[in-house]
Design goal:
Strand content: 5-15%
Number of strands: 8
Radius of gyration: 20 Å
Structural class: alpha/beta
Order of helices and strands: HEHEHEHEHHHEHEHHEHEH
Strand order of the largest sheet: 2-1-3-4
Number of helices: 12
Oligomer: single chain
Length: about 325
């Protein structure tokens, strides 16, 4: 996707020579949560898994437990997965992976590019394909499927199956852990149902479509001009008219909350945030990757609880 000043900068693209001659090039690590499958001394006894972000890396760890060594390529909240460029360490980890988990839908294309440049053949799990979601008529696919809890439940089963294929002796363990993970997701869905019962039909605004699956499941209506959130997501400038219409949501108190993606802030989203605060409208921050010290369920629980609290004000 095109870059602009509203997007956090990603590391520079390394040369094609480096990607081919891995041993001859230095690299800087961007691996995140979990063990690095390419370096762990226990790599021979566990399943090496590579995830595009620490969201999927955490899911793999929850389901694989001590039987997996997970490398999460992106774990830094200052990184924008849309514009991330790979390094040699990422390529090396992918070359050794038995299971790869990517988001798909154009979100983390760097994974497919790296897989295409190597000769490894891991089991690849594409979250968007697992979700079964597609673009609405005349619209664009919302690829942020990890904010959709039914999709996360499907992913848990798919991850368990992939790990069982790599390690049949521990298949029952993976199935049990996936079941426990899905039970936690059921609790989150109950929280969404409670918001829907209390606030169904109320309008909210977003800076980007990142949390829309959560908002829709909670019965909320996205009142943001589509041109605003699309421009922010694409790193484009927002037209003066679209910005004016967006700010009017807050000055006119037409929405109950602003759900703000902290990972892609810029002058125009900051104007929206300030307008909401000035009007006394709660701002609910969200991110695209796991905050430090959080697991997936804890992170999503905090997001849902923050949304419920904001709407109750």
């Amino acid at each position: 996707m095109p870059m602009s000043s509203s997007r956090r900068l990603a590391p520079p693209l390394i040369s094609g020579v480096c990607l081919i001659f891995l041993a001859g090039c230095g690299s800087s690590s961007d691996s995140g949560s979990g063990s690095d499958a390419s370096q762990s001394p226990a790599a021979a006894s566990v399943i090496p898994v590579v995830a595009s972000t620490n969201v999927y890396g955490d899911m793999a760890e929850q389901i694989g437990g001590g039987k997996v060594a997970v490398t999460s390529i992106i774990s830094d909240p200052d990184q924008d997965p849309h514009s991330y460029e790979a390094n040699t360490q990422n390529q090396l980890a992918l070359s050794k992976a038995k299971v790869v988990i990517e988001n798909g839908g154009g979100y983390d294309d760097f994974v497919d590019r790296m897989l295409g440049s190597g000769d490894s053949s891991p089991e690849v799990i594409n979250a968007v394909k697992v979700s079964g979601k597609s673009a609405p008529a005349g619209g664009e696919l919302n690829e942020h499927v990890w904010y959709d809890f039914p999709t996360s439940a499907k992913l848990a089963d798919r991850i368990a199956a992939a790990l069982a294929k790599a390690d049949p002796d521990d298949a029952a363990t993976f199935t049990d852990k996936a079941k426990a993970f899905k039970e936690k997701l059921t609790s989150l869905e109950r929280k969404e149902a409670r918001i829907k019962a209390d606030h169904g039909g109320e309008a909210v605004a977003v800076t980007e479509p990142v949390p829309l699956y959560l908002l829709e499941a909670s019965g909320l209506r996205n009142a943001t001009p589509e041109a605003f959130s699309e421009a922010i997501e694409e790193g484009d400038d927002v037209s003066p008219r679209t910005l004016r219409d967006t700010l009017a949501l807050f000055t006119g108190k037409k929405v109950k909350a602003l759900v703000y993606n902290e990972q892609t802030s810029g002058p125009q989203t900051e104007k929206a945030e300030q307008a909401a605060k000035t009007a006394g409208i709660p701002v609910v921050p969200v991110t695209e990757t796991l905050p430090e010290g959080k697991d997936y369920v804890g992170w999503m629980t905090a997001n849902v609880d923050a949304l419920a609290s904001a709407l109750a004000k």
